[in-house]
Amino acid sequence: MTLAVAPPGDNRLSAIAADIAAHGWSWQPNLLPDELTAALRTELQALNARQDLEAAGIGREDAFQLDRSVRRTRISWLDGSSPAQEAFLAWAEPVRQSLNRELLIGLFEFEACFAVYPEGGFYDRHLDSFEGARNRVMSLVVYLNEDWQDDQGGALVIWPEGAGEAGTPAARLLPFGGGAAFMLSETIPHAVEVTHARRYAIAGWWRVNQSADKRVDPIS
Ligand code: OGA
Ligand code: MN
Question: To bridge 138 with a disulfide, which of 92, 96, 110, 206 should be the other Cys (CB 3.0-4.6 Å)?
């Protein structure tokens, strides 16, 4: 089985780049085609039912910590091994190319994971990339729930670049299925508010190529 989906249209792609250039993030309702959202949701629900997800930590490798007071999520890395994953990675590629063309930011590799927040799940305010860490430059979160209701919570809260903890958020976005949030990984602080229903998403990051300075830098 293969799943063929159209990439976002040129107008949508230009709007994303313009938002990023203006303030470092972009919210795009209904960016993912319905068919793809549904296929990814089905796969994630099956993974969740089989308990085939790992507890998400903060940081990776040496810095990895499991701190349930900061983040309560279960994840599974995408490897393109199912038609839905393959279609999603194929869908993301023209997005990468467009961002590179319009913003000249040299996005290179993409890594992404399925994420399930159980009821009561959340993720405290954070940046996706720390200076010099893993060279994540652009974050993408896509939402996979069907019929999300306002009172179910689980909003993605975005602060403007440089805003302190007490700063006023720039946006509070409910995770409606098919919606996509783009954020500059190193500069846009964000958080996930407590969710009152099981919340399905994919969180991904594009990285720049580090192989140029004489060391290979594969995705791990
Ligand atoms: C993340 C993250 C936001 C969301 O996984 O790093 O910030 O809305 N996710 O799920
Ligand atoms: Mn994040």
Answer: 206
